[in-house]
Amino acid sequence: MLQARAIGKGARGGSERGPMSAELVVGPMTRYADATRVSVWVETSEPCTVTVEAGWVRGEGRTFTVHGHHYAIVDLDGLRRAVPYTVALDGVRVWPRDDGSPPSLARPVADARRLLFGSCRTSVPHDARHVLSHGADVLGAYGRRLRETPERDWPAMLLLLGDQVYADEPSEAMLEFIRARRDGEPRDEVADFADYAELYRQAWTDPDLRWLLSTLPTAMIFDDHDVRDDWNTSAAWRAEMAKVAWWPRRIVAALGAYYVYQHLGNLSPEERAADPVYAELRSGEGDRGAVLDAYAARADAEPAAVRWSYVRDLGRVRLLVLDTRAARVLDPRARRMLDDEEWAWATGHLAGDVDHLVVCSSIPVLLPSGIHHVEAWNEALADGAWGPRIARWSERLRQAIDLEHWAAFRRSFEALTRRLAEVADGRHGAPPATILLLSGDVHYSYLAKARRRPIYQIVCSPIRNPLSRTLRLANVVASFGVAGLVGNLLARAARLPRPPYRWKIVKGPWFHNAVATLDLAGREATVRWHTAGPATDAVSEIAGVRLAAGRVRPAPPRAEPRT
Fold first, then answer.
1. How many angstroms separate the CA atoms of 33 and 35, rounded?
2. CA distance linking residue 279 with residue 295, whole number of Å
3. Angle 469-479/482-493 helices, nearest 10 degrees?
4. What's the pTM?
5. 253-295 tens-digit pLDDT
6. Burial degree of 443 (CB within 10 A; 0-12, 13-18, 19+)
7. 321 in Cβ contact with 219 (< 8 Å)
């Protein structure tokens, strides 16, 4: 752990650059935060000592190196409020930059009064052509609005719920980088750690987003596109990918890069200090790429040996973030969204005695009923309910149209929803006012509510990657209206048990690029979805809903500063 210590107000780093001075490549990003501590993550161009100063608090540590890239996490301890901070590399101040941005703040998080969340962001340019094809970058627009908003009204933290990068759908700039490096396969996807490092650099150095990430503590979890579309859909998918010559290098690079760029920042200083992989990466001065590769290869081969999920208690709010990709059990007839060890760990935190239980899953738990029943029906057929020939056809269908959500892992769906009902009923401690499932993935947003219980599914997707008009219509037809009846008939034909309780979509769907805010005050909860217009890039509210004591009612519009 990189230790922090108090310093005098007048202490400053140097200001002159030498010819071989290290520079910031990505970051700074404020990641883990609690009531008194903030962790600052950076990637640098050279090995160096990283110093972060925030008022009276100073943190310092050396970078570690993997595959020629250099990283550090510096922990600031002893913060009592939000404080502007600076970053110096080998004594040379490199942040903040003189670009007119407000100061970056080290902001401790004592409670979860407001959470900002979303998923699915492509990192394409902001010119007219890409705004027409991809819409406005809502997260960047929201960051620009925060510059005009008093700090007391900012979200406490940002949750990125998957597809932070698109490794299988690279931008034109990323394709140019890939094709300049190699002639072999894959030509149109990332393949190794260097590719991933460039992918994250392009995604996280847009000026507006960079400032936002430098000042809002951010927690993350992957979905499939962080690795590859349909990652771990089924055992058949893994078997097919195992035949691809470049895949072993790709999956090792994907998980290794995820560990460095996303996972490390999710960990508390104590968790990082107890992590043997992190200790090995920081031991010695040489390149530790082989250490990271060995860990990533084991994570892919033995998912139960690695835990990407994590939990944080923020005042009277519990935030439980679940890995719904790497932890899957894919054996036919025994599919699970979480392996036994992961599920046992999760159930230990799926409990009451909090005001709000917030469970983050990159993929929704409560889907529109039509899709839910079709996915459960497909799994039953893939498991042989109608014979081996239909099973093979069903497996192909599962991959072709992405039937891979919780409903397609029925045993885990039933276990989770039953456990949530027990928590809501007060069987595992005093019942929370709300149980809130936050998800993305599906490229539209909606609110679902369980019948007779304060269990809500809140979906916000995409940040910037909208569906075409054709796919929007297809999703509406497949998900809503008569699709629910058809799906229910299919589920009954496969002799599937009914879900533990019913739910329905009470708001949405909306197909805008969007981010959402979740306000938690005492035992009250309010969710709002925000979008940005492609012409003006101004942030506007799509909808707001109060979730109070299990009741759904419209939230009054919130006055927001104009950009």
1. 7
2. 12
3. 60
4. 0.92
5. 999 999 999 999 999 999 999 999 999 999 977 999 999 999 9
6. buried
7. yes
